[in-house]
Amino acid sequence: MALLWLSALIPPAGTGAQARLAEDVRLFSDYAGPYKVLERSDLSRYDNGRYTGHVYREVRALINPEPSAAGKVYQGNFFILEETLRDMQRSARAVDDVIPVRFELFYDGRIKIDDDRGFPAMRGFPAFPAERVQPGDRWTAAGERAADPLNTGAYVRFPIIAEYIYRGQELYKEIPVYHITAKYAVRFTAAKSQLQPRDSFTGLQGTHDVDIMLRVSDGLPLMMRDNVDETYTWADGSTVRFRGFTLSFGEGVLPPDQPSMAASLRDVLDGGSGGNSGGSAVPPAGRGRVVPPDAGPGGSPPGADRAGNGPGSSAASPGMGGSGAGGNDIEVNATSGGVKLTVKNLRFAPDSAELLPEERGRLDLLARALQATGGKTFLVEGHTASIGRPSNEMTLSIERAKHIVNEMVNRGIPADRFIYKGWGGTRPAGDNSSEAGRGLNRRVEITILE
Question: Which of 56, 146, 151, 219 has the most Cβ atoms closer than 10 angstroms to its Cβ?
Answer without folding.
Answer: 219
